Structures are given as structure tokens and as C-alpha cells.
Amino acid sequence: MLLINIIGAGHLGKTIGRLLVKNKLVKVGAIFNTSIESSISAIEFIGEGKYCTSLDELPAANITFITTPDDAISSTCETLVTNRFIEKDSIVMHCSGSLTSDALTSIKKRGCYIASAHPMRSFAKPKLSVEQYSGTYCALEGDSEALSVIAPLFTSIGSITYRINRNKKSLYHAAGVFASNYLVTLSQQALACLKDADVEDAMAMQIITNIMRRTVFSLEQTLSPRQSLTGPIQRGDISTIKKHMDSFPDRTRKKLYSELGEATLPLTTHDQNKTEAIRIALKSIQHRDTYYVTRVNETTQYTANPFFTSMRLTGYRIDNKKSLYQAAGVFASNYLVTLSQQALVCLKDAGVEDIMAMHIITNIMRGTVSNLEQTLSPRQSLTGPIQRGDISTIKKHMDSFPDRTRKKLYSELGEATLPLTTHDQNKTEAIKMALKLEEEDILYMSYSFF
After folding, report:
1. Which CATH superfamily is domain 2-163 in?
2. Which keywords does UniProt give here (predicted)?
3. How far is CA 321 from the centre of its chain?
């Protein structure tokens, strides 16, 4: 039986370790985490192993998993080079979605083989991840000698494995951000709409996850974003789009609705006139959001005082509750389909065939919706580079997109995701800088609307 070590057994490391042990595929030699307490917790979850207090203590193993945060993988590997127990022909691998096996090149001087395996799913809840792991798509790349060992292991725990081009891995990983992390962002936008429409939080999340689950099911059946799209943009319902835009009490939500609407248009079959009319409706970010209505002694009075924009307890928007409720459905369903299209384009650009790509996308979306159903909390379900504050990965994604439209949408969704994180001001500003479009992209976007 193969012997493994795990360095950095967090959510992903614990899940993979538990699955390998549960299926009697390996024995765990040692776990090394940043604290003894977290190492012991990982050992208890996985079911076996002992903890080490330094990398020098790691015993010999057939496979060493480095499942640390991305920015620690290369430095961890470099430290591992000096470990006297590392054996020639053993395997060192990581499970990063954005980094290739090149991050482990330093260990090759010890005669080791290197690889990466990235299961495309959320690992926010390890226990749930273990239960739902079967059928997860897992991308592999690296030395053939390593892959010949790793591929059967991951297949045996329920993965559907496939090889990817290491030079296109950033696009592959960005697809996961669109399909999973930004799906959580959509759930938060839908939640904000329902809360503004006076729906209680727990009920709102049940409504949102229900419609998301049904939308993912539709995508699984059709394997086509175009065939699964419904809603006002698909119908060309200008009046409803304007009502939604007018109902939002904040410009952030207006802007995101607008950008996602623009990204949805290529999935429709409208003629040029209808398309332009929809674009105009989506760009109507005006001052109408300052108009509120209050009731005094059963008479109606109108005001354009911006004071009411911040004092929401003083008044309520004219006929906006139902529009907000409907807009929540657009975020939770129609724009989920839009995200699937963005993820599909990323995977196609990474060389993944259409049908396989849609299976990958719907699989990760289903897992993310399950997490939301369990937590009833977008904040608790969020994973990915923005949640981790992984500046390097965010920049790689932005640089990997061959079109400005995708860059802009990734950027806007990233900005909308930040309120779900707990980063300090410095980290938040650093993420915003990484998400910013280059000046030439901004100029292109500006001129494209004239």
C-alpha cells in the first residue's frame, strides 16, 4: 500500500486524505500544518497519521501532497529539498487550481517526479465534500511517471480525471471561479434583493438555492447555456429590465446587473434593434433611485431628497418590492446561466471539449449550491482566490483572458465579492488593484458604447 505525507492539510487536504484512507488506498505517514492543534484536527478527520513539528521530520513516503495555500507551495517545496528522507523516484504533488507542477521544479534535483491534481469543486465544508465527492472532475498535469500513479488513485476515490495543457491552466482555474465562487456572489446579490423586498434571510436563502438547483438541473439536461436561458433579457422584456434597474437602492447592484446583462446578450437571438434597446435599458443608471414615497395620514407624498436613499426606514420605493423580488430571480437563475457560459468559454480556451466542459461546470455548480443549502450563508460558502486574498492568482486570471469583456465581468464580480470577505483594508485595496482593468481596456470599453 502506498504511503503518503500531507503538508498543509486544510479543507482540501483533509478531504483528499480522508477519501484515500476511507477507500483503503493509502496509509498516512505524517501531517504537517502550521500548528500542532490543526495537525491533530486533520489527523482526527482523516483517520490516521502522526503530526510533525517541522518539515525536516517528515518520514519517507511514496507521495508527498503539498496542499498549502498557493503562495506557499514553491517555498514549501524548496524547504523539502533538504529533507533527508525524500527518496528518489518518489512523487511530490500539489492540488492548486492556478499553479502548474512547475511550482515544484526544485524537488526534481532529488530525483523526484512532480505533478498537480486539481479537483474542480468547492471544499468549504470538508465533511460535506467527502460525502459528495464522487463524480468530481479532476484535472491532472505533470510528469508521466507521477500521473501513472496519481490518476488511478484519484479515479478510485470517485474523480473523473482528465489531462490539461499546463500552459492553459490559469484559464481552466478561472472557469472554476466563474462557476463556483461567483455563483456565491450571485446568491448574495439575490439575497440582498429579497431582503430589500422584506423576505426573511433563511426563507430568502431557501428560495435562492431552490431556483439555483433547478437552473443547474436544466444546464445538466441541455448541456447548453443558450438553451437553458430564460428571463427578461432572453425574452427582450425592456419594461421589466428597466423596472429592475430602477428598483435597486445601490449603484453597485445596478452596475453588476448591467454588466451581467451585457454578458448575457450573446446567448440570445435578438435582432440588432432589440439588442440595442436592451443595452440602453441596462445602461440607465440615473438618479431615479433617489425618488421615494412616504405615507402621511393616508396621503401620498413624493420626494427626490437623496436623504431618503440612506434612510430606508423612512420610506419605501414606489412599487419596487415586486421588482426586487423578480430581480433576485434574475441573479439566481438567468445570470447563473451567464456564469456557466463564461466558464464554458474559459474551458474551451483551455482546450477542453464542449460536452466535457459543461459536465465539469454543472458538477461544480451543483456542489456549490449544495454548500449554500447547508450553510444558508453566502459568506460561509465562499472559497477561491478573492476569499483567500490570493493576489497572484487574481492577476494570472486577469492576464489570461483573451477578451476585454471577460476581464471586465471578472473584475466587476470580484468587486461585488469583496464584501463577503474579512480582509483588512490593505488586503482589500490590493485585491481591488489586481482586479482593475488596464487603461487600454478601459478606453476600449468606453469607446465601444459610442
Report:
1. NAD(P)-binding Rossmann-like Domain (3.40.50.720)
2. Oxidoreductase
3. 29
CA 146 to chain centre: 28
Task: Name the H helices within 311-423.
Answer: 321-329, 335-349, 354-375, 378-381, 385-388, 391-400, 404-417
Tell me phi and psi for residue 17, to 5 degrees. -60, -45
Cα dihedral 408, 209, 390, 139 sign: negative
Contacts of 450 (CB under 8 A, 6+ apart): none
Task: Kindly list the domain boundaries of the chain, sorted by start residue.
Answer: 2-163, 170-285+317-387
Contact 248, 398 (CB under 8 A): no
Record the cell numbers describing residue 111, joined without a space.
Answer: 530525483
Based on DSSP, count helices (H) and strands (E) in the chain, helices before strands.
Answer: 23, 10
Q: What is the CA radius of gyration of the chain?
A: 24
Phi, psi of 140 (to 5 degrees): -120, 145
Residue-by-residue pLDDT tens, the chain, 450 positions: 999 999 999 999 999 999 999 999 999 999 999 999 999 999 999 999 999 999 999 999 999 999 999 989 999 999 999 999 999 999 999 999 999 999 999 999 999 999 999 999 888 889 999 999 999 999 999 999 999 999 999 999 999 999 999 999 999 999 999 999 999 999 999 999 999 999 999 999 999 999 999 999 999 999 999 999 999 999 999 999 999 999 999 998 999 999 999 999 999 999 999 999 999 999 875 434 333 333 333 333 333 333 333 333 333 343 578 999 999 999 999 999 999 999 999 999 999 999 999 999 999 999 999 999 999 999 999 999 999 999 999 999 999 999 999 999 999 999 999 999 999 999 999 999 999 987 555 444 444 443
